[in-house]
Give the backbone structure.
Amino acid sequence: MGRDDTEEFEAIPGSGPRSGQRFIHSKPKEGGAERLAQGTLGSFDVASSTMANMAPAMSFYFSFAVIAGTSGLASPLVIILAAVAIAILGNTLAEFSRSTPSAGSFVTFVGMSFGPVAAVTTALTVSAGYVIAIAAVVVISGEWFDAIVLRYLHLSAPWEVYSTVFVLGAAYMMFRGVRVSTKVAASLFATQLAILLIVSVAVLVDHHRALTLQPFNPAKLSGGFSGLSLGFPLAMFMFIGWENSASLAEETVEPRRNVPRAIFASVAIMALTYVFLSYATVVGFGNNFRAVASSSVPFLDAAHGVNGLLLFLAYLAGMASIVGSLVAASNSQSRIIFSSGREGILPSFTARLSATRRTPWASIALFLGIAMAISFAFGGRTDPVVFFGEIATLGTILVALVYLVSNLALPFYYRRHHPEDFNLVRHLVLPALGVLCIGFPLFELVKPGQSAPFSFFPYVALAIVVVSVAYAFYLNRKDLELAERIGSFVADSE
């Protein structure tokens, strides 16, 4: 993408190759690099979308048995510590967004800190991670719906049929505009949250004799620190999606204020939700964490232990969670691809917008199309639930790598672009803690000695990163203006 048309600059000393200027934006040759629908979303919309992306029902259903098995009765305590770690990571994204809110999110922030090679590498790595992770959601959407239909209507169909319907429905909502799709995601989130709370309260009432504070007693951690260290990474990964709001910045009212608010509010609300769900589940099993660990989906079993209606509601909460995550995650993560295409980091066709709704239809279609291809190519080779856990792990490795690099980038960004605003705690101490917070769970995902296919995933992730770096060097040599365009579309600039 060259700059043959109208260009705009702002005076920011020392921020780029042009002394005293930083490139803001240019009208592209092919007319693809345009603005999203600025000022469309409020802080509530963005926070709701972020929590829908985290998908509390789906995340909790498929994670808590393993957390209970590794951490023991004090599993809720582990979730509290994981929430603190996520809040520390949230500080990094909030500080970047206060300074340069951008639909490019991690790509923009890492690129402005470390340069164009890092930006391109980040764009390819995080896009691959998100696409792979959403493939897991595509598969489980069809499988979960099939389980509901089979259980209550005694009918069945291949999960691929149902998944295709859900993906097309999600795409349709997103093509209608960010406000429509965000409202849909928020409604699905509210539905699942209401059901989860109703079921949890009913379980607690039914098992009131088992109420105790022992799940919050550190002495009840299995193996002490060992139990904490094993359960902590799994608890952190239940919060994946906390970063959703950053890439919605361009469509958010007052993004420098509302994006950080959405980050911290969503993490706090999800922390309280997960702690309450975990406590209710443990109580529902009579505080027998071994029984919790032996259940495939403990929350469903706890609900079923009270009555069949609660079980049905819990199934519906899972469905709302999965579809809400599909919409919210695709909405947010496709915008990173759009922004990268707009700045010339990815091919320009990914930056195409609909003329009326300002929707990045090309990046949405590409994002969901690749996810469906992965799902259909590999999802049928094993049990869909097993595939869900496996492919989500691979995607998480790539995304966690970007989390880590973004924390390394924050102090460099503020020293380079805003030295007058540099704060020792917010811009150095907390990011350093963030590196530790994500470094340990990341190591648990890539450490040697795991069973297949998890033992192969570190090599797959490494291959993706290596290819990304090679392409980044190639593009940087080919496009001499790339460095100037990174971060050129600030969310709240005209």
